[in-house]
Design brief:
- The complex is a heterodimer of chains A (1232) and B (226).
- Chain A is of the alpha/beta class and 1232 residues long.
- Chain A is 36% helix and 7% strand.
- Chain B is mainly α and 226 residues long.
- Chain B contains seven helices and no strands.
- Chain B has helices at residues 2-25, 32-39, 42-77, 83-108, 117-146, 155-170, 177-217.
- Classes of the chains: A alpha/beta (1232), B mainly alpha (226).
- At the A-B interface, helix 37, helix 40, helix 41, helix 44 and helix 51 of A face helix 3, helix 5, helix 6 and helix 7 of B.
C-alpha cells in the first residue's frame, strides 16, 4: 500500500524532505498546482471548502447553480475550483503533487499519496469532484453513488444541494454498509470519522443525481414525505481489504496515545486501529469523488439578512442570497429531499438541529473539552498573512496556518488564536442568523437536535451542551484527543490484536518522553534539519516528535514506520536496553517468510524491514516474562502461579516458534547490566525413577512358570490335548477334508502368517503338509505375505519334504539306497520334486485387490513358481483345487480369502488360524463345508492323529525306488531275527470274519483271490485300508499271514465313522430287507470287520460286541491303527510297493526314543520278512494313547505343559493385581 | 486451474470406478444389462484396471524399499547425526544390500548349498528375533492387566477382569468339575457374545466399505486427493 504511494510521484517530483508538501502549496488559487501551501490544515478544512463553494457560486454569474452544483458539467478530471482557498486540508497536497489533471485521474490529482493509494484503480472515471471538496465529504457522496448516476454523468449530480445531507441522514443504509465509515477514515475529520464509525446502522446515503435543485427548507419536508430512490447494492457495497496486519506492522512507531488505545482494546476482535492505520484500499465506489460541494441547501436559501456573517467569515452573505434567489428556491415539484432521520422529519429539522446533533455526538465521542476548543472560529479571518517562517504567504479568503500553543497541537493552537470568533460566539450567533432567515431557517437548537436524532442511540451518547464545548478554551494535547477514540475505533482483527497483545513491543519506552526528546534534539540539529528538511510547525507534535514525514507520500502507518527507520539513530545513541533489543532483533528469523501469505506481504510492505513481525500465536502471552519482565515482576508472577496451582504447571509447555526463538534471546537486563539476576523459576525436583519391582517380579514369575515344565517333570500338570477331534467339530471336518484327498489332487495352501506367529502356526502348517503328502496330493503354496511365503517355503522344503523324502546319500554295492532307520519313503515312491509334487507360487501383491486379480487368471498367475521356473500347472479356476486351506494369523487374512476366493470355488475352504484370530475368523466357518483349526492345541491333536495312523501305500504308478537296506552293518552281536519281527509284517485277519461271511452267502471268497503268506505282496492289496470302496473284495481269514485268525490279535483294527448326523440302521444282513438290530448314532465310531462282495455293505461290530451290516455309503473308514505298540525297530527292504512312513520324519526323529537304529536287522530277516503293508507299519506306529507312547515331536508336550503353567501364572498375577487394586481402592475410599 | 484439476480427477475416478463396478458386478445372467456390459467389454476394462492397481501397489513396495534405503543413507552421511544413528542406519543398509546380493546370487545359481544363506538369515535371524519380540508381548499384556484397576476401580474394569479370568481359566486343561463349568462358560462366551460381536464388526466393515465405495463413485468422497 505504501509502495503504491511512493510510485505515484515521478522521481523528480519527490519531495525533498518530509515537508515538501508544505512547500509546494499552490500560490495561485486558480492553479491547483501552483503551490497554495496551507500547511497541515487538519480536519477542519471542510469548513473552508464550504466557503470555497460559496465563492464559486458568486463567481458563476450566468448560472443559477453554484459551482459545486455545476461541477459535473465540467469535464471529468478537471477541477473547476480555482485553487485552494485557504483552509483546504488535504487538497493542498493535491496541488503539490505537480501532476496535471489531465495526466491523472481526477481523483488522484493532487492527492497525497497516502490518499491516492486509496483511490479507485479501475478505469471507470469517477465523478470529478470539486477540487476543494473535502475528500471525506466526497467519499460520503460517493458512497451512495448509483449506476444511474454513472450513466447520467453529464447531468448535474447535485441537483439537490442537500444530497450530502441526505447521504448522511436519509437512506436505507443496510448492514452491509457498516464498513463505510472506514472508507471515509482518511481525510474526514477524525471527529466526524468517529461519528461515522459509531454509526454502523446509519442509513445509506442516497444518490443526489436525480435530485432537483432545491434550496428552500421546504424541500426537507418534502423529502421527508417521500423515500429516496433505492440504489443497487452492488454500488453500495464496500470492498475493503483486510487492514488487520497494518497496525501491527506499525506497532513500533505507534505513539503513546495509540498504544494506550491498543493496550486495552487490541485483544478484542472488534477493536479497530486508528483511521490512518486502518487505511483500506478503497474501491471505486467508496472513493469516487463527490461531484460538488454538498452544501446544505438551506444555505442557498439564506438571505443576506438571515445569514450570519460571523458564521462564514468574510463571505458576503449577499452571495448566498443571490444564489438563493437565482437558483435555490424551493420547488414544490422537486423530488422530496430525504429527511434527516425518521425521528426528525425534515419539517421540524433545521440545519441548526443537524449541526447540533453532529457536534454533540462528536463531542461526546472525543471529549467535550478537548477537541472543540481546538476548532477554529468559524468566523476566522482569512486575510492574507504570513506565518511561520514567512515562506508561505496566505492569500485572502484563505485561512491561515496556526502557530503552536502550549499544550496543544500547533496547528490547532494557531487555529484558535486566529479565530475572531470564539466557539461560543459562533454558537450564540448562529441561531440569530438562522432566525433571521426568511426561509424559515430552523433554530440552532433544532439544527443540532436534528443531528442528534439522526444518530443511532447506541452510538450517540448524551450530547454535551454546545456552550460547554465552546466555552472550553484550553487546548489539550492531540494525543488526548485521539486516545479518546479508543472507544470508537476498536475494530482490530484477531490476528493483529493477538500480535499486538502478545508481542512485547515496549512502545512506551521507545516513544517515551526521554526518547522523543532525543529525537527532537537530533531533529533540531543542523545535520538533522538538512536531512529532514524544515519541519512545519503545523504538524502535530506527536508526528514531529517521532520525526516522521507526513508529506505527500508518507502518511500511512507503514510510511511512518519507514520514515522512522530512515531516521534511525545510531546505535551509540541508544540506551543499553535498546541496543540489547536491537541485537536481539537481528537474530530473529526473517520477518516474512517466503511462503508467507500474499496478503501478509502486501499489508506489511516496507514494514518487515523495520519490525520483525512476531509469529502469530493463539493463547496467553506466556512469553512476556522472557522478554520484558524484570526480576521483581517475575518473582511476583511466580508467586501467583504457585498460589493458583493448576495442572498446567506440571506440564511441559509446548513451545511455539516464538517460544523457541525467545528462549535463546539474550537477557536484556544482563546485557544492560541494570537488572538483577533473573528470579529463579521454581524448579521441580527431579523425579527419581523407582525400580518397578512389581513389573520385574511379574516377568520373573512368568518366565519361570513357562520354562520350568521343560525341565521339571513334576510341573507338567494338566492334561495334554485330546488325541482326536470331537465328531462333527470344525476340527474334525478339517481333518476329514484332508483325509479325503485323493492322490494327485491339488491343494492350494495360503500361508498368510508372518514370523511373529510362526511359533504357533508352523506346527499347523507342517502337519497339514504332511497329511497332504501322505494322501498323495500336491500342495500349491501361495501368499499375500511376502515373508510368510518365504517362510512357508522353508517349512515345506526343509521340514516336511526333507523328512518324507528319500535319503539319497548312500547306496550299497548292489545299488540299493541305504535308508537310515527312522526314515522312509514318501508316498510318491521317489524324491519329492518341486513343481512336480508341490509348487510355491510367486508372491501376490495388493492384498484384496491382488487376490482378486490373482483369481482372474489362475493359470497365468501360477505358470511360474517363486523362482521363476515353470510349474506346469494346468489350472483354470479354483475348482481345479480339491481343497483350499488358509493358514492365517489374523482374521483379515481369512476375510480376504473368504470374500475374494471362496465364492469362486465349489470346493471347501479350510481355515487354520491362530488363537488370537479365532473369534473373528469363526464366522467364516459357519458352514460345515469349511473346517477350522485353531492354534497349537488343534495342531497338536491333528498331529497326534496323523502319528497314530498307519503309513499309506505308495501311489499307483509311482516310480520304482531302489531297494533299501540298513545303513549300518551288523554289529558284533547281531540279534537274530526275532519271532516278533515276522508277526509284525504279516497280516492276519480275525477269524470272526469267517463266520460272518458264511452267514452271508452273497459273499463268495474265491481261492484265487485269497491272501497268501507269500513274501511278495501285490499292489492290489494296498488300497484296502484307504476307503471302504477300495476294500479288497476277497478278504479271507484263511489268507492272513501269520496264521492268526483274529485280526485283533494282530493289533489291526479297522474303524469307521458314521458320516452323517442322523442315525443309521444296522441290519442283520447286507440288504435293506434285513432286520434292523441297532441304530447307530451319527458320527459314532464302529469297528469294521467285513464287507459284502460288491462293497456296498460293511459288516461292523459295536462296542457291545453286537455285529451287523451297515450301508457303506454311511460309513467312512478310518485309516487303521494298531493298539499294540511295538518297541521293536523296523528295518526292512523297501520295494516300490512299500507304504510311506509318516513316522520317518527326520526332523522329529531326534526326540523319538522308540525308533532307535536297528542295526540288528539282517538281510535274511528282510528277505524272510517281506513288508506287509498295513501290517508292518502299524507295528511301528502305535496308536497314541495317553501315556502309552512317547511323543514324536520334540518338546511337543513340554510346550503344552509350559503353556499350561504360564496360563496359571497369568491368571494368578491378574487375580492378585485385581485384588490388590480393589483393596487399595476401598481403603482409599474409606480414608476419604 | 486447481479447480479444473480437481474436477478432472473426480471425473476420472468416477468413470473408472463405475466401469470397474459394472464390469465386476454384472455377470452373464442379467439379460440386457449383461449384454450391454459385455458389449462394451467392461469386464475386460475392470480387470485391466485391477491389474494396473496391483502393479502400482507392487511398485510402491519397491519405492518404499528404495526410500528406506535413501533415508538411512542420508542418516549415515548426513550432517549432525549422532553416532548411534549412523551405526544403526549403516547396519540396516548393509543388511538390506547383503540380502539382496545373496538372493541374487542364489537365484543365479552362483551360491549353492543347503541350507541357502538367505534361508539361514530368514529362519535363523529374523524368525528368532520376531518370535522373541512377539513373546515379549505376553509380559506387557500381563503387566497391563495387573495394573488395570490401579488408578481406579470401575465397573468396566471389573467386568473386563472377570471375563478375562474366566476365559483364561476355561482354557486350562483340567478336568475337575469346577473347571468344566468354567470351560463351559468360556465356550459360551466365545460362541455367543464374542462371535456375535465379531459378526457385528464384520457387518459393519462390509457396510462401511459399501458406503465408502458408493461415495467415491458418486463423487462425494474425494479422499483420494489427499
Amino acid at each position: 500500500m505504501t509502495d503504491d504511494f511512493d510510485k505515484r510521484l515521478p522521481p523528480d517530483e519527490e519531495p525533498e524532505d518530509d515537508f515538501d508538501w508544505l512547500k509546494n502549496m499552490p500560490d495561485d488559487p486558480s492553479n491547483p498546482s501552483s503551490g497554495d501551501n496551507l500547511g497541515f490544515t487538519g480536519e477542519l478544512s471542510w469548513r473552508q471548502d464550504v466557503e470555497d463553494a460559496f465563492d464559486n457560486q458568486l463567481d458563476a454569474a450566468n448560472n443559477d447553480l453554484p459551482d459545486w452544483q455545476r461541477t459535473d458539467d465540467s469535464p471529468q478530471g478537471k477541477s473547476t475550483k480555482a485553487g485552494g482557498l485557504g483552509f483546504t486540508g488535504e487538497l493542498d497536497w493535491m496541488r503539490a503533487s505537480g501532476q496535471s489533471d489531465e495526466d491523472a485521474p481526477a481523483s488522484d490529482s493532487g492527492l497525497p499519496d497516502w490518499l491516492s493509494a486509496a483511490e479507485p484503480k479501475s478505469t471507470e472515471a469517477p465523478q470529478v469532484p470539486d477540487a476543494d471538496v473535502p475528500d471525506w465529504l466526497a467519499r460520503m457522496d460517493l458512497m451512495q453513488t448509483s449506476p444511474a448516476e454513472d450513466e447520467n454523468a453529464d447531468e448535474p449530480l447535485d441537483d439537490d444541494p442537500m444530497a450530502w445531507l441526505q447521504q448522511d441522514d436519509d437512506s436505507d443504509f443496510d448492514d452491509e454498509q457498516e464498513l463505510e465509515p472506514a472508507a471515509l477514515a482518511d481525510d474526514m475529520p477524525d471527529w466526524m470519522q468517529s461519528l461515522r464509525g459509531a454509526q454502523p446502522d446509519e442509513e445509506e446515503p442516497q444518490a443526489s443525481a436525480s435530485l432537483p435543485d432545491t434550496g428552500a427548507l421546504n424541500w426537507l419536508q418534502e423529502y421527508a414525505a417521500e423515500p429516496p430512490p433505492p440504489e443497487p447494492e452492488a454500488d453500495l457495497e464496500p470492498d475493503f481489504p483486510l487492514p488487520a496486519d497494518e497496525p501491527a506492522a506499525a506497532g513500533s512507531d505507534i505513539p503513546d496515545w495509540l498504544s494506550d488505545a491498543y493496550s486495552s482494546d487490541f485483544a478484542s476482535p472488534e477493536s479497530a486501529p486508528p483511521s490512518f492505520m486502518d487505511e483500506p484500499e478503497l474501491e471505486d465506489e467508496e472513493l469516487e469523488p463527490v461531484s460538488d460541494i454538498d452544501l446544505p441547501s438551506w444555505l442557498m436559501d439564506e438571505t443576506s439578512d438571515a445569514l450570519p456573517n460571523d458564521l462564514f467569515g468574510e463571505f458576503d452573505t449577499g452571495m448566498l442570497r443571490e444564489a438563493a434567489e437565482n437558483g435555490l428556491p424551493a420547488s414544490p415539484a422537486q423530488p422530496p429531499v430525504p429527511t434527516i432521520s425518521d425521528e426528525a422529519p425534515a419539517a421540524k429539522t433545521g440545519i441548526t438541529d443537524w449541526l447540533q446533533r453532529e457536534t454533540d455526538t462528536a463531542f461526546s465521542k472525543i471529549g467535550q473539552d478537548d477537541f472543540l476548543n481546538t476548532l477554529p472560529d468559524f468566523d476566522a479571518q482569512p486575510h492574507a498573512s504570513t506565518v511561520g517562517s514567512g515562506d508561505q504567504t496566505y492569500q485572502d479568503s484563505e485561512p491561515e496556518p496556526f502557530g503552536a500553543a502550549d499544550g496543544t497541537p500547533d496547528w490547532l493552537a494557531e487555529l484558535q488564536q486566529q479565530d475572531d470568533l470564539t466557539a461560543e460566539e459562533m454558537t450564540t450567533e448562529l441561531p440569530t442568523a438562522m432566525a433571521s432567515s426568511p426561509y424559515d431557517m430552523p433554530s440552532d437548537d433544532d439544527l443540532f437536535a436534528g443531528l442528534g436524532n439522526a444518530l443511532p442511540a447506541e452510538s450517540a451518547p448524551a450530547p454535551a451542551a454546545s456552550g460547554e464545548f465552546f466555552n472550553t478554551g484550553e487546548l489539550r494535547n492531540i494525543d488526548d484527543i485521539l486516545s479518546s477514540y479508543q472507544d470508537i475505533e476498536t475494530r482490530v482483527s484477531d490476528r493483529t490484536g493477538t500480535l499486538m497483545n502478545q508481542a512485547d513491543f515496549d512502545m512506551d519506552s521507545l516513544l517515551s518522553d526521554a526518547e522523543l526528546d532525543k529525537i527532537s534534539a537530533l531533529r533540531e540539529s543542523d545535520e538533522r534539519r538538512a536531512e529532514m528538511g524544515e519541519l512545519s510547525a503545523d504538524a502535530p507534535d506527536w508526528l514531529s516528535d517521532i520525526g516522521v514525514s507526513v508529506g505527500s507520500d508518507d502518511v500511512s502507518a507503514a510510511a511512518i514506520v519507514r520514515k522512522q527507520a530512515q531516521n534511525e539513530r545510531e546505535l551509540e545513541d541508544l540506551t543499553d536496553q535498546l541496543r540489547a533489543l536491537h541485537s536481539a532483533g537481528l537474530e530473529l528469523p526473517s520477518p516474512i517468510a517466503d511462503d508467507a501469505p500474499d496478503n501478509m506481504k502486501a499489508l506489511l510492505v516496507g514494514v518487515p524491514e523495520i519490525i520483525s513481525p512476531a509469529p502469530m500465536r493463539i493463547g496467553k502471552p506466556s512469553l512476556a516474562e522472557n522478554l520484558v519482565l524484570s526480576a521483581p515482576q517475575r518473582e511476583k508472577i511466580n508467586l501467583l502461579q504457585s498460589l493458583v496451582a493448576t495442572d498446567d504447571r506440571d506440564k511441559e509447555p509446548e513451545l511455539t516458534a516464538i517460544d523457541v526463538t525467545l528462549e535463546d534471546s539474550p537477557d536484556l537486563e544482563a546485557i544492560a547490566g541494570e537488572g538483577a539476576a533473573k528470579a529463579a523459576a521454581p524448579s521441580r525436583p527431579a523425579r527419581r525413577s523407582r525400580p518397578k519391582i512389581d513389573r520385574l517380579l511379574i516377568a520373573i514369575v512368568l518366565a519361570v512358570a513357562i520354562i520350568l515344565p521343560f525341565v521339571v517333570r513334576g510341573l507338567r500338570i494338566g492334561q495334554l490335548p485330546p488325541l482326536s477331534f470331537a465328531a462333527g467339530s470344525p476340527q474334525a471336518i478339517a481333518f476329514d477334508r484332508v483325509a479325503n484327498l485323493q492322490p494327485g489332487d491339488r491343494v492350494m495352501i495360503a500361508s498368510e502368517y508372518g514370523l511373529t506367529d510362526a511359533a504357533e502356526m508352523d506346527t499347523t502348517l507342517d502337519t497339514l503338509l504332511r497329511h497332504i503328502f501322505a494322501r498323495g496330493a500336491r500342495p500349491v503354496i501361495v501368499s499375500t505375505n511376502a515373508v510368510g511365503l518365504l517362510h512357508a517355503k522353508n517349512v515345506l522344503e526343509r521340514g516336511v519334504v526333507s523328512g518324507l523324502d528319500i535319503k539319497t546319500g548312500s547306496t550299497d554295492s548292489a545299488g540299493n539306497v541305504v535308508v537310515n532307520p527312522g526314515t522312509g519313503l514318501n508316498r510318491f515312491g521317489r524324491v519329492i520334486t518341486p513343481n512336480v509334487d508341490y509348487v510355491v507360487a510367486p508372491f501376490i501383491a495388493g492384498e484384496s485387490i491382488g487376490l482378486r486379480t490373482f483369481s482372474q487368471d489362475l493359470g497365468a498367475a501360477l505358470a511360474n513358481d517363486i523362482n521363476g521356473k515353470a510349474t506346469n500347472l494346468k489350472v483354470t479356476s479354483y475348482n481345479n483345487f480339491a481343497l483350499i486351506i488358509v493358514v492365517a494369523e489374523t482374521s483379515d487374512d481369512v476375510r480376504r480369502w473368504a470374500e475374494q476366493v471362496a465364492p469362486l470355488t465349489s470346493n471347501p475352504l479350510l481355515i487354520a488360524v491362530s488363537s488370537a484370530a479365532a473369534p473373528m475368523a469363526e464366522p467364516y466357518t459357519v458352514s460345515n463345508r469349511n473346517g477350522m483349526l485353531v492354534g497349537y492345541k488343534d495342531a497338536y491333536t491333528y498331529r497326534a492323529i496323523l502319528d497314530a495312523q498307519a503309513p499309506l501305500a505308495p501311489l499307483a504308478g509311482s516310480t520304482s525306488v531302489p531297494t533299501v537296506v540298513p545303513t549300518k552293518p551288523p554289529t558284533a552281536t547281531p540279534i537274530p531275527p526275532t519271532a516278533t519281527l515276522v508277526p509284525t509284517i504279516t497280516m492276519t485277519f480275525t477269524p470272526s470274519l469267517t463266520p460272518t461271511i458264511t452267514l452271508t452267502p452273497s459273499v463268495t471268497m474265491t481261492p484265487t483271490q485269497t491272501f497268501t503268506p507269500s513274501p511278495t505282496f501285490t499292489a492290489t492289496f494296498t488300497p484296502t485300508n484307504v476307503k471302504a470302496t477300495d476294500l479288497p473284495p476277497t478278504w479271507t481269514p484263511t489268507t492272513l499271514p501269520g496264521g492268526s485268525a483274529d485280526i485283533g490279535a494282530q493289533g489291526l483294527v479297522i474303524q469307521g465313522v458314521v458320516n452323517v448326523s442322523e442315525t443309521v440302521n444296522m441290519r442283520d444282513n447286507p440288504s435293506r430287507q434285513g432286520k434292523v438290530i441297532a441304530a447307530l448314532p451319527g458320527r459314532s465310531t464302529v469297528q469294521i470287520i467285513g464287507r459284502n462282495e460288491d462293497g456296498t455293505w460293511l459288516q461292523v461290530r459295536l462296542e457291545d460286541k453286537r455285529e451287523g451290516w451297515v450301508s457303506a455309503q454311511f460309513i467312512r473308514i478310518i485309516e487303521p491303527g494298531t493298539g499294540t505298540p511295538s518297541p521293536t525297530p523296523v528295518a526292512y527292504r523297501v520295494d516300490p510297493n512299500a507304504y510311506v512312513s509318516l513316522l520317518s520324519d527326520s526332523s522329529y526323529a531326534s526326540g523319538n526314543d522308540s525308533l532307535q537304529t536297528t542295526p540288528e536287522a539282517t538281510p535274511e530277516a528282510t528277505l524272510e520278512a517281506p513288508i506287509a503293508p498295513a501290517l508292518a507299519a502299524p507295528a511301528a506306529a502305535p496308536l497314541p494313547a495317553q501315556g502309552a507312547s512317547k511323543p514324536r515331536t520334540p518338546y511337543r508336550d513340554q510346550r503344552w505343559y509350559g503353556m499350561t503353567m504360564g496360563l496359571l501364572a497369568v491368571i494368578g498375577i491378574i487375580t492378585l493385581g485385581a485384588i490388590i487394586n480393589i483393596v487399595r481402592g476401598l481403603l482409599r475410599r474409606g480414608r476419604k | 486451474m486447481k479447480r479444473l484439476g480437481s474436477a478432472l480427477s473426480t471425473a476420472l475416478v468416477m468413470v473408472i470406478g463405475i466401469i470397474t463396478f459394472l464390469g465386476l458386478i454384472v455377470g452373464n445372467g442379467l439379460g440386457g444389462l449383461s449384454n450391454v456390459v459385455n458389449a462394451f467389454a467392461l469386464p475386460t476394462f475392470a480387470n485391466a484396471f485391477l491389474r494396473l492397481t496391483v502393479i502400482t501397489l507392487a511398485i510402491t513396495v519397491l519405492i518404499g524399499i528404495l526410500n528406506l534405503l535413501l533415508v538411512h543413507l542420508s542418516r549415515v552421511f548426513g550432517r549432525g547425526k549422532p553416532f548411534s544413528q549412523r551405526i544403526n542406519s549403516l547396519v540396516l543398509i548393509i543388511s538390506a544390500i547383503g540380502v539382496i546380493v545373496l538372493g541374487t546370487l542364489e537365484r543365479a545359481g552362483v551360491l549353492t548349498g543347503s541350507p541357502a544363506p538367505t534361508t539361514v538369515l530368514l529362519e535363523g535371524v529374523q524368525l528368532s528375533i520376531e518370535s522373541a519380540l512377539a513373546g515379549l508381548v505376553l509380559f506387557a499384556l500381563v503387566y497391563g492387566a495387573y495394573r488395570l484397576m490401579r488408578r481406579r476401580v470401575t465397573g468396566s474394569g471389573l467386568l473386563f477382569t472377570i471375563v478375562l479370568l474366566v476365559i483364561l481359566t476355561g482354557a486350562l486343561p483340567f478336568t475337575t468339575p469346577g473347571m468344566r463349568v468354567v470351560s463351559i462358560i468360556r465356550d459360551w462366551l466365545l460362541a455367543v457374545p464374542v462371535s456375535a460381536g465379531a459378526r457385528g464388526i464384520l457387518l459393519g466393515i462390509a457396510l462401511a466399505v459399501t458406503v465408502a465405495g458408493a461415495r467415491v463413485l458418486i463423487g462425494q468422497d474425494r479422499s483420494y486427493r489427499d
